[in-house]
Specification:
This is Putative binding domain-containing protein, N-terminal. The protein has 341 residues and is mostly beta strands. The protein contains 1 helix and 26 strands.
């Protein structure tokens, strides 16, 4: 019988290969999880995630909505295991949390997406615009929102108009009822514009926003009596005194108040004043005077809250004693003393 050395070599190699197949096969899984995306309801609850690994692993949670609503029951594990993700009820926009699992140089992620707790997200500023004069001032606008806890995540951007300069709007803050910011004095001599945008995104990166526009000219604030009557002799039996004034100060700058100095006679005999900024008319009730002649002086005052402001010229009111029978006290019958000084 003749043998082939080549055939013997091939047979030996085959036997060696078959002998190796008898050794047990152990797959190596560096790092994996049973699910990478989990959809959660808006109500509170918990869910379990399986981790597959041949070594030690660590966990961390990252959420743009804050970590308070999302919690894990452990920070690390070894080989095959699991962890529990616990979540609170969502009272705002949809949100997500990312759990990162690391083992050696390997990383995998599990994204937890929780449904929104509101159906019609609202974020509005009222009024949507404000027009200011040359003097800067703090501005407060009404903010309406149903975003719940997500209101804390609202951010702002300021864009300035062409040739309007930058940096003249600052100290932007907001709470659940208002948007507040400050505007610097306009010393440029030109009209300028800016837009404040408030925005927030949900767990799907949908953006919700609202805008407030600011315009500011360089006109000076003005508050004057017209005409500036120096003295008015009121009827002894009483009257309603009216004084016209000019005012270009928008209400957003603050209130206009009445200044009253009693010169002679008792204090407090001027009552029921009203300042009508739209009509430019000041009215003061002067009751009948049953006593000695008396006098007072009045003016309008705007206080800018910074130690400055405008005070108009004073108007002096005088009143003689009323000798008409039956008049008693400082007020005529039927008068109301809603405000007096």
């Amino acid at each position: 019988m003749r043998f082939s050395y080549k055939g013997i070599a091939w047979l030996a190699a085959l036997c060696g290969a078959l002998s190796g197949c008898n050794e047990p096969f152990e797959p190596t899984i560096r790092l994996a999880v049973d699910q990478n995306m989990v959809a959660l309801p808006a109500t509170e609850g918990m869910t379990r995630v399986m981790v597959y690994s041949t070594g030690e692993w660590s966990l961390s949670v990252d959420s743009e909505s804050g970590d308070a609503w999302a919690r894990i029951d452990r920070n690390s594990g070894r080989e095959n295991g699991d962890f529990v993700f616990e979540y609170d009820t969502n009272g705002g926009l949809s949100r997500k949390a990312t759990i990162r699992i690391q083992s050696g140089g390997h990383t995998c992620e599990v994204v937890m997406s929780q449904a929104a707790g509101i159906t019609d997200p609202t974020l509005t500023v009222t009024p949507g615009s404000v027009a200011l004069l040359g003097e800067g001032c703090p501005v407060t606008m009404t903010l309406s929102s149903n975003l719940g806890p997500d209101l804390e995540r609202v951010q702002h951007e300021i864009s300035y108009g062409e040739e309007s300069g930058e940096g003249w709007i600052g100290d932007v803050t907001l709470d659940d009822a208002s948007l507040r910011f400050t505007v610097a004095d306009n010393t440029t001599g030109a009209l300028r514009f800016a837009t404040i945008t408030l925005w927030v995104t949900d767990g799907s990166d949908t953006r919700y926003e609202t805008r407030a526009t600011v315009s500011q000219n360089s006109e000076a604030l003005r508050l004057t009596m017209t005409p500036a009557e120096e003295t008015h002799a009121a009827a002894s039996y009483g009257e309603t005194f009216e004084q016209a004034f000019e005012c270009n100060i928008p209400e957003i700058y603050g209130e206009i108040s009445l200044v009253c100095d009693y010169l002679t006679g008792a204090d407090g005999w001027l009552t029921n004043y009203r300042i009508d900024r739209e009509a430019g008319l000041l009215s003061v009730k002067i009751p009948a005077n049953p006593a000695a002649p008396r006098s007072a002086r009045i003016a309008l005052r705007y206080d800018d809250g910074k130690g400055g402001g405008i005070t108009t010229d004073y108007v002096t009111l005088t009143q003689e004693k009323c000798d008409i029978g039956g008049v008693e006290g400082d007020q005529m019958e039927g008068e109301k003393d809603d405000n007096e000084w």
